[in-house]
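To whoever picks this up:

The parser on our side crashed when reading a file containing two proteins. I've narrowed it down to the boundary between the first structure block and the second sequence. Both blocks are reproduced below exactly, byte for byte. First block:
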Amino acid sequence: MRNLLLICLALIAFWLAPFARAAESVPVKSGRVVAQLVTSYDTVEPGQETYIALSMRLEPHWHTYWRNAGGPGEPAALRWDVPDTISIGEIIWPLPETVSTGPLINYAFEDRLLLSMPMTISKDAKPGEELTIKAHAVYLVCYQICLPEMAKLNLTLTVGEPVKDQRWSGNIERTITRAPKPEGLEASARLNGGVLSLDIGGGELDFAALKNVYFFPYEQDLIDASAPQNISNAERGVRINLTPSFGLEAGIKDIPGVLAFEEKTENGWTRRGIEVNAVAGAKVDIGKVKAGSGGAGIHTSVGLWAALLGAFIGGMILNLMPCVFPVLSLKALGFARAAHDERNVIRAHGWLYALGVMVSFLALVAVILALKAGGVSVGWGFQLQNPVLVGALALLFFVIAMNLFGFFNIGGHVQNTGSNLAGSGGHKGAFFTGVLAVIVATPCTAPFMGVALGFAFTQPPLTTLLIFTALGAGFALPFLALSYAPGLLKRLPKPGPWMDVFKQFLAFPMLGAAVWLIWVLAVQTGAGGILRILGALLSFGFAVWLWKRKAVFAKVLLAASVLTTGYLVYDLRNVEYEQALAELPEAQTWSPQRVAQLRAEGKIVFVDFTAAWCVSCKYNDIAVLQRQATKKLFARTNTVMLIADWTRRDDAITAELARHGRFGVPLYLVYPPGTEKVDPQILPQIFDYKTLKKALAKAGR
């Protein structure tokens, strides 16, 4: 028995002998992580290139950070104290994981981690010499709370015949082998409407066989790490749409990082990464991007045919939205005039109106695509974020109203430009009525439109144009169909004195539209903008009064009044943004950080993405959100409302809209309380009190 015990002890000593010689530091234990300095060789020779590593064993649930922490966090760092005969290189970072902490996403490591670094022994090292390596390691470990930790580590290497460490050499070699490296992939980066798009292709990678694709940038704060990554497969590569962060406020630049993915091997699905450098403005041929080809984004959940159908139906419903009523009243006047004309005349008016609608929609999308290609974040209704255009539209509606009242009747070239849309009963009037209808329709978003537009602007330009064509066709169809129903038009009374009364009556919707646009200016520009636009209306009214006076001095005054009108409208570009909707009573300003804070405090969060020029938004405000019953509902359910004000251009709001598959307002989100990352409920673009109550009840469960 005694001999058997001695034999066992001898065997144990034999197997432990290599570890006893191992060049490794004494482990430093904090209760959350065990840190240790290790090498791949116990004994080294002069001139040898080897590796040294920081080993970290983390307790369950605790994590530490990659070179880019993604969200808040710091990577591990080491400060060295080594002999002159030793040089140590940079950390070779393994492929990280995404770790969720409430709504935040970090790039981090859990369980075990080896941070390997190349180490070179100088040829001047002497055999038999002992080399002492000291390191001061600092690292941040997190689980519910984050704790900064440090460890003072040291080990001794003997110079002599090389002896590989039996325990650590294999682990270090595997870590280095699996670390991301360049493999000949090409990548491009571009900013497009608040979205950072990376096209990655080339190399020998079979992109069609990959799953769970993800991009880790090397530099922090270039992207919103907590936002989903929208992955679209292509014929010869992949497109990744990301949400840019403040690191790209100055514009696009090269974005190096790691493309992570899973690929099928003999042993099943294996996760690995490849280093890529997305070059700003470069062109990478990835072939045709497959719509709805998967990924984390909401945009790919909509197919092309569904988007076309949604856009077409949304365009028809858009005719019923309140923002279009003033201009449609002009079309009603046109039909009333033409009701008893020849059938061909009526149909020609219908087709010219449809042509005006289609040309305007396609021109609008062309401008948006051009701006987005230049890196400008714009969205649906972007033109009404410009105070100059809002002021010009207010003046135009005022001019139309005065014309309908009969104060003047401008003919000739001015009429042909569309200034006298209501007074023109001919072909030009029909066409320009369609143009004006589209301009004022953009503050509204009808049901079915939101998702279709959000999908449209994540697709190639041709697909975007197709979807807008469907939208324009749906918008133009009702009046075009009416022009082919002469039986209905014949029911109208024949032209007579009633036409003049009807014409003057329609001036009031024009004045109402002008009042609404002036209120939009009040939110955008404050008192300075109101003074300018009212001055412009006064000046133009004076010009109308001078119109029929033949004296030379009157003509000079008329010209001066028109020039003054134009200057006052143009000068709106210099007025500062004086008031935001979120600064009005009983509202708080939206930010992702504020949402996370309120949720962590146990509150339900209702986010209202709105704009002063959004008529659909105003309808929901009056019908639901401003009711006393709703305020009591918010108080009873412990709900806080946040306002994301898009009245003037805001890239952060544009990016958040895109993240939820929208390209314009309104958008209503309901977040439940808690710290875990969740997708919010998305309410309909037009909703009622019962819908809101049901959503809040679901969030509070």
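<<boundary where parser fails>>
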Amino acid sequence: MKQKLRVALAQINCTVGDIEGNASKISEYIRRAQSICADIVSFPELALTGYPPEDMLLKANFIDDNLKKIKEVAKVVGEIVAVVGFVARKGREIYNAAAVIYKGKIFAVYHKMCLPNYGVFDEKRYFAPGEKSVVLKFGNVLFGVNICEDVWYKNGPTSQEAFCGAKLILNINASPYHMGKIKLREHVIADQAKANKLFMVYTNLVGGQDELVFDGQSMVLDDKGRVIQRLEAFKEDLLAVDLEIPQLKGRCGKTIIKITDKLPVKEKPPLPVQKRGILEPVKEVYEALLLGLNDYVKKNGFQKVVLGLSGGIDSSLVASLAVDALGKDNVAGIFMPSRYSSAESAEDARQTAQNLGIKFITISIEQIYKMYLAVLEQHFFGMERNITEENLQARIRGNMLMAFSNKFGWIVLATGNKSEMSIGYATLYGDMAGGFAVIKDVPKELVYKLSRYRNSLSQVIPERVFTKEPTAELRPNQKDSDTLPAYDILDPILKAYIEEDKELEKIVSLGFDKGTVSKALKMVDASEYKRRQSPPGIKITPKAFGRDRRMPITNKYRG
């Protein structure tokens, strides 16, 4: 015998700390799920507080407000089971929890058992681990509830709940994005479904939160591990699926929580056919950057952004992302030439701005630069010009951008990429100045691919920007290649060292020149102090600087 259930997944965009706003959105989606006659609706992990709340969890009032609000949310729940992520408290301990609500009553609270404490996760700092699984009886169906990391362990909570007779698992998540992660998630969930012979409903958070982007891409898998439904990537979504769940008696007796023996009779309209696939890899990254940028700007109370538009590939990509995320009326580009800026750069910057339809301002920094040189001349007398004079130009530009930010309330977008941030090829208080570094975790080679992808939608970046040699234009005839290996060599070296933690000899064994590798690694190690002072940026690789990779600034170890 099988029981038919209509299960809805509410993939919502929550804001950390906005308990009132998050509760309102949860209530709205519960009503929407009820309107399509869903029997169950599940929400993301910590949907009520937003994820990750970090040290907000150390504030007693924050926990109190969340506990008060989950009771208010429960009041809007009618003849539907709602699984909502919130923070539970028991004595002095707090828990990453899921409330199971039906007809205004909280029937069960599940405490997350497997707390991640690696990469961007720091849950053991705040939460106590749960100690028991939760299985509930709804009509003739037994279902289990668990949270994110719980499903990644082969003999963890999912297996325990399956042993007690659950044939459906509702797993709620706040799983951050990085390139290719959807395939890894799908593999893990499919293995659990097949191994335990049950249906998996995987509901993930969507939205940007500081450096993190949550991609959604929630999914439903059958008991053979096949994806039978998938939600939108990088967008809020509500989707229902009709499942036929096998009816079995529970094997854990009194530990099974009864919600109701008889499901309410509902006239269920047919569901629309909706098929959503996985995005192509470069498009996936582009969409992640759009969402991260949009949410960072808007959730922090800004409307407009400004950036230095140099005529190079990095600033052209950032300008394109800003327009696509925020609209052309909310973006300004400033071209700030010095004596070393080429006519081609001026033309390319102007053309990019024109193609995008954004406000374009040209401010020569030559007079300011001359003044700096004159003031410093007596102090630098007899010394050759070097990187000092080069960096003065970058710092003047940083000051100009910050002046526009202060005067008009625009947030400055830094335009440095991961390759530059890795080796310190960026100027503190110059091109590193800004409120948000959109492509901070995007290697240079990927910058070109993303820019090509954007041009495939509409031609906004001039072709010459792709073909000319990268240059900072801070001295005569300067090229990045004067100082750095070619990016198609540098980027794989940096990936091996930063994302894969490979040491020098191992990287050399991959086919790279030892001198080139040694130089690159020394530059990475010497630049930690710079990166620590850079603005936050969107994580799109498996290991980004900051939350993922936490290296000491003062460090003599060189392997």
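After patching the parser it read the second block fine. The two ends are 63 Å apart (CA to CA). The chain is about 35% helix and 20% strand.
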